[in-house]
Amino acid sequence: LNDNDQHDNHLAPALKNGVHLNGHSTLTKGPSLTNGSLKAEYLLDRNLRKAYPVVKGGKGNYLYLNDGRKVFDSTSGAAVSCLGHGNQRVIDAVAAQMQTGTPYLASTFWMSEVVEELCKELINGTDGKMARVYLTGSGSEAMEATVKMARQFFFENNKNTPRVNFIARQHSYHGNTIGALGISGHVARRAPYEPFLMDNVHHVSPCNAYRQRQEGESNAAFVAKKAAELEATFQELGPETVVGFICEPVVGAALGCVPSVPGYLEAMRDVCHKHGALFILDEVMSGMGRCGTLHAWQDEDIVPDLQTIGKGLGAGYQPIAAVLISQRVVNALLDGSGQFVHGQTYQGMPVQAAAALEVQKIMREGNMMKNVQVQGAYLEARLKALLGDHPNVGDIRGRGLFWGIEFVKDKKTKEPFDLKTGIAQKVSDTAISAPFNMVMYPGTGTADGVRGDHVILAPTYIVTREDIDHIAKTASDVVHHVFSEL
Ligand code: PLP
């Protein structure tokens, strides 16, 4: 351990004792570590050519690297680690569940109290507006289950139901499994697999005020256009053929923290319900407190028929996601076959539930939504003060502790950067390097220029005002540095 670590005596005991978490000492073929970065020779991950910095451990807002650096995690990973790293209460809850000897139980045979308690906690978190919880191991699986449950909702009543079409949105991301990707309007992620993807998904435009709203156009007028577009798509497909409409209330990875314009979700719900279709929200990224209310829809006085959650649910301590199901949908299953025709091995594991339950209790008991709102408002103010006038910053938008910065070549025309410039990646790579040592999540633009390169900031819910000052100042320093070198 180096000097840095000596000062940070809150590092996990395993690290203090010199345990090699990455276990490379046992490999016959050594890892190729250069400047603390590791290019994998055994693991096949996202980028086969790139060397990544190696993390030894984490505590609170910080990640501790092999090369002695301490990096501020201002994205909570992929908007996951909302309680920060190394939370002792969650670690203890997970350890205690392991000690019972049943971290896993086959859901075919068994129920456990911790799973039921988690589900009760989650339903209470909707003020009883949702009725049941279906647990999964990832956001993609939650979306798969949602697609199937939505279809089954109609199938229960009519085995020949004509409801076969979904409507989703362009520039959306709902997961990487075939069904979830089929819903997604993410051109690059779909491209290699296009022939396998459902052809009964139809995409309408997203709700992106910065890129689409006309100068001087009111929210109401903008929303009316979006509702008319959805209505037209229903009519084109035949309203009686539509299962449901799916969207993210605040678009995460696909657009960079773009919130719906006020009134949008309500208008879209109304179109769906007018035609008897389901209104479905994907809150895998925007939910579980990320936007300042436990669920983003709670800000809007609407309730979805089906909703997915993930990421902040288990805060990275266990892989867990879920579908929240309204009484209307539960009733269709209860009054029909009484079964959801689905199921996976690692679903509703007690150890997953123990982690998520503890995370949710910590959030509730610590009134963390208040901190998300207060620090989120401060982050917005600081980012706008430090970067709002930068000639290459087109838009700073978001909600709660979920903020996106979109870069443009020309602030007036909003012309995005040529994708070859790789501007978001440059900003992210610079941020994570010394002397900045902070994570900024990159998102590339699209070739059609509909969305520009952007970065996301999504810090933990435990951030203080001083942390926000640090995040905003560092983000500003990084952006100024990158554009001065262009
Ligand atoms: N839906 C949204 C909105 C997401 O942001 C993601 C992941 O980033 C997913 C679904 C898929 O979740 P997972 O990566 O856990 O499968």
From TrEMBL:
What GO molecular functions are on record for this protein? Answer: pyridoxal phosphate binding; transaminase activity
Q: Which Pfam families match?
A: Aminotran_3 (PF00202)
Keywords annotated in UniProt: Aminotransferase, Pyridoxal phosphate, Transferase
Report whether Aminoacyl-tRNA synthetase shows up as a keyword of the record. Answer: no
Gene Ontology CC entries for this record? cytosol
Q: Which domain of life is it from?
A: Eukaryota
- As recorded in UniProt, coiled-coil segments are none
Family designation: Belongs to the class-III pyridoxal-phosphate-dependent aminotransferase family.
Instruction: State the name under which the record lists this protein.
Output: Probable adenosylmethionine-8-amino-7-oxononanoate aminotransferase
